[in-house]
Amino acid sequence: MSTTGQAGPAVAAPPDPGPPRTGRRPLALRLLARPEVGVLLGAAAVLVFFLVTAPPVRDGGSMANILYQSSTIGIMALPVALLMIGGEFDLSAGVAVVTSALTASMISYQLTMNVWAGVIVALVVSLAVGLFNGWMLVRTGLPSFLVTLGTFLILQGANLAVTKWVTGNVATDDISDMDGFGQAEALFASSFDVGGVQVKITIVWWLVFAALATWVLLRTKYGNWIFAVGGNKESARAVGVPVTFTKISLFMLVGFGAWFVGMHQLFSFNTVQSGEGVGQELIYIAAAVIGGCLLTGGHGSAIGPVFGAFMFGMVQQGIVYAGWNPDWFKTFLGVMLLGATLINLWVRRTATRR
User: Fold this and answer.
1) For residues 209, 211, 212 and 214, what is the CA-based torsion angle, rounded to 10 degrees?
2) Buried/exposed code over 287-296 (b: 16+ C-beta within 10 A; e: otherwise)
3) CB of 305 within 8 A of CB of 97?
4) Of 203, 173, 237, 223, whose CA–CA distance to 67 is shortest?
5) CA-based max dimension of the chain
6) Which of 335, 237, 315 is nearest to 73 (CA)?
7) C-alpha dist (Å) from residue 79 to 6, 220, 231, 257
8) Which residues, in sequence order, are CB contacts of 30 under 8 Å at separation 6+?
9) Closest to 279 (Cα-Cα) out of 18, 31, 49, 92
10) Which residues of 155-192 are buried (b: 16+ CB within 10 A; e: fewer)?
11) For residues 223 and 217, is the Cβ–Cβ distance under 8 A?
12) 108, 190, 226, 337: which has the fewest C-beta neighbours closer than 10 Å?
């Protein structure tokens, strides 16, 4: 009689391990993951383009002028970029610059005070505008678009109405002969010589602020908070991030930037036109977006907007040096903005692809 043997339990074959893993992504992908890489390449391409098509750009004085134009955009683009990384943006940033300059000028001239009194009052006003924007945002839960659009309209109207009421004109009076003007001018609007080329002090301040913002983002707890609230504020709050403080302080940083640029404008031209500043907020936001910051928040750097602002200054002055019609400037900016947005989207998808 034959017996049938019983088979033992089936043993599954081990899965194919596939190609060995290196544990680290390729260097190219790691570089592409950096938000400033795309704009760095773009800024280099724009620079080479104008060096070829506009020979005056090769002159040291022309390059100093380009850097100066870039710095007046870049100083404001930095806090705007930090705010965008934190998940918000500020439509009142452009007119807030003029509000700051008007405040300092009228306080100093109408009250016949040392210009430093006007500078300090202007700082308080600028920080208060940022505080108001941030407080309204966290208190009401409204989108920053609506909150800052309201502030934009309030400041735009107040700039014109208050200036005409106080001075009887649409511009402030000349303060160049008032006490303290020389010291303030040296801090906010002076120039110094480098190899026979006059370099504006704002270029130095721009680079200092960029280095400080980079250190804050990458080396401090506050920088982690900014990325956290921009990525997901509810998750950030759940792990102990002070969301309210972070949001409000970021709006106040934009206020500080508006104050600084406003002081530069005042002490460069000695007077301020009350209707200026409209539209500049879009330039600041665009420089941050071109620099790799996302409107959805949680992604970006401080170095990227530096190159974004440089691209703006390069195009703005390069068109003039090339002898082209400057009316095309905004068209170039629109093309750059759309191109940078598409490049940033491609870079992010490529960097996260396995």
Assistant:
1) 120
2) bbbbbbbbee
3) no
4) 203
5) 123
6) 315
7) 75, 16, 18, 7
8) 24, 351
9) 92
10) bbeebbeebeebbeeebbbebeebebbeebbebbbbee
11) yes
12) 190
The mean pLDDT values, 10 residues at a time, for the chain of 354 residues are 43 45 55 68 85 89 93 95 94 96 95 94 97 95 93 95 93 92 94 90 96 94 94 89 95 97 95 89 89 83 91 87 81 75 68 58
Token reading at 271: 């007077």
- What pLDDT score was predicted for residue 173? 92
Count the Cβ atoms, other than its own, within 10 Å of residue 122: 25
How far is residue 345's CA from residue 339's CA, in Å, rounded to a whole number?
A: 10
**Chain-centroid distance, C-alpha 7:** 71
CA distance 281 to 284: 5
pTM (2 d.p.)? 0.87
Residue with tokens 């005409």: 164
